[in-house]
TrEMBL record:
Its main location: membrane. This is MFS transporter. Residues 30-438 form the Major facilitator superfamily (MFS) profile domain. PROSITE patterns: MFS. Pfam families: MFS_1. GO terms for molecular function: transmembrane transporter activity. One of its GO terms (cellular component) is membrane. It is found in: Membrane.
């Protein structure tokens, strides 16, 4: 009997080691590709903020025209999020995630040739159409690959790609605007769009060749490792029963709309920071494209580190909601403080941008990990893209509102204060609205998580 117990212990220890190696292999093979694609997605949608420093003068765009073009990205994003995610269920994650990446890469290349407001509007809309399914698709993809804290940590790293995108835009954009301006008769902002889009097309091809759909199809895992991963995912499933009755239609599920409201508030702040940070830094006293680019890059690097730190501390299931709300408080404080600092203190402006980037990054990362635990079945598969689509209306409205206020008043102050108030409302939704839709977890559904809030 003792020999049998020792054999069981040895087998269990061996299986644990194999499982750890399997997850480590998955992280190294999957996470870098998705991180870089997410970073490049944000480069494609956000580099217009840096190009704005030259483009609005070259094409004679008003702030309102710029804001409308920046925001039209989110119209395509809202309309096509759910259809693309449904295609992922039918054709698999590899084909859909790589396919949409290649499509938005080609669209980003086409931004090089913008010559009028209608062309600008059309390409921004198409860019949103092709990016729409990537983020919710990755949420579901991670849910199929990693359990619990491992998923939260990996997702926070993945999401930091959004912040590092601005590092890429800042460092390369500043160089291109200053050094390639006039090359072959093209302005620097056109070269910036071109050079920052090509890597997306290349990496999309790599993703199609490398990414497996599910652990069971990963050829670089042994048969035993695939079995262990699948068993571990079932054992540590964090998906709760749907809130309310299972038969309740998705559009009548209160969880979907409360989560959409919370995410709307988070994305309003994200749009304000990403689309206007280069202009804010220029008005704060940073001179020259390279200096502005380095400042944007530095703020995002420190913001990304803050994002990972907050998610590491608040990644446990019972902490996600409260730390998501705390991150939103940091963001609201950043937006409010910027109004009073960017014309008087370059140092304070830089610090507040760091705080804002850390808050938005951590808030969004923790939001999705919390949301996965509130939805299951069809509500999970369809609810994730629906929440993303509804909430991304904030991305459409925010730059238009801020641009219009700037044209009307000559300052961004009123627009940023309004966005800060929206973010503060989001804190209330997270603390009180989400709490109302949460229910105790079924131990049969999740035996690994205790005392979920």
């Amino acid at each position: 009997m003792e020999l049998m117990n020792q054999a069981c212990v040895h087998e269990s220890s061996s299986d644990d080691a194999l499982l750890r190696k399997a997850y480590a292999a998955a992280q190294w093979r999957i996470l870098p590709i998705l991180f870089c694609l997410w970073m490049l997605a944000w480069v494609g949608r956000s580099n217009v903020a840096f190009a704005k420093l030259q483009m609005v003068v070259d094409l004679r765009f008003s702030e309102t025209v710029y804001g409308l073009g920046a925001g039209l990205f989110f119209v395509g994003y809202v309309l096509f999020g759910m259809p693309t995610t449904m295609l992922q269920k039918k054709f698999g994650a590899r084909a859909v995630l790589a396919g949409v990446a290649g499509a938005w890469g080609v669209t980003s290349v086409a931004m090089t040739f913008v010559n009028s407001a209608p062309t600008f509007y059309a390409l921004r809309f198409l860019l949103g159409v092709f990016e729409a399914g990537f983020y919710p698709g990755v949420v579901l993809y991670f849910n199929a690959w990693f359990p619990g804290k491992r998923r939260t940590r990996n997702f926070s790293i993945f999401h930091s790609g959004a912040l590092f995108s601005t590092v890429t835009i800042g460092l390369t954009g500043g160089f291109v605007l200053e050094n390639l301006n006039g090359l072959a008769g093209f302005h620097g902002w056109r070269w910036m769009f071109f050079t920052q889009a090509i890597p997306t097309v290349v990496l999309a091809c790599v993703a199609f060749a490398v990414l497996p759909n599910v652990p069971g199809s990963a050829k670089w895992l042994s048969a035993r490792q695939r079995e262990l991963v699948e068993n571990d995912l079932r054992k540590n499933a964090e998906t709760m029963n749907d809130v309310g009755t299972v038969e309740r239609p998705l559009l009548l599920n209160p969880a979907v709309w409360i989560l959409s409201a919370a995410y709307f508030c988070l994305l309003a702040a994200t749009a304000a920071l990403f689309f206007f940070s280069p202009t804010i830094l220029r008005e704060a006293g940073f001179e020259g494209y390279k200096e502005i680019g380095r400042a944007v890059a530095g703020a995002c690097i420190f913001g990304a580190l803050g994002n990972v730190l907050i998610c590491s501390i608040g990644g446990a299931p019972h902490r996600r909601r409260s730390f998501c709300a705390l991150a939103s408080v940091f963001t609201a404080a950043s937006l409010s403080g910027l109004v009073f600092s960017w014309h008087s203190s370059a140092g304070a402006t830089f610090f507040l941008l760091v705080l804002g980037f850390a808050g938005t990054g951590a808030g969004i990362s923790l939001f999705w990990q919390m949301s996965v635990g509130l939805l299951s079945g069809k509500s999970l598969v369809l609810g994730v893209p629906l929440i993303s689509s509804v909430a991304n209306v904030a991305g459409f409205l925010t730059p238009i509102l801020i641009g219009y206020v700037r044209d009307a008043t000559g300052t961004y102050a009123s627009g940023f204060i309004m966005v800060a108030c929206v973010q503060a409302l989001g804190v209330g939704v997270l603390l009180f609205g989400v709490q109302r839709i949460m229910r105790p977890r079924s131990r049969a559904a999740d035996i690994s998580v205790q005392n979920a809030v």
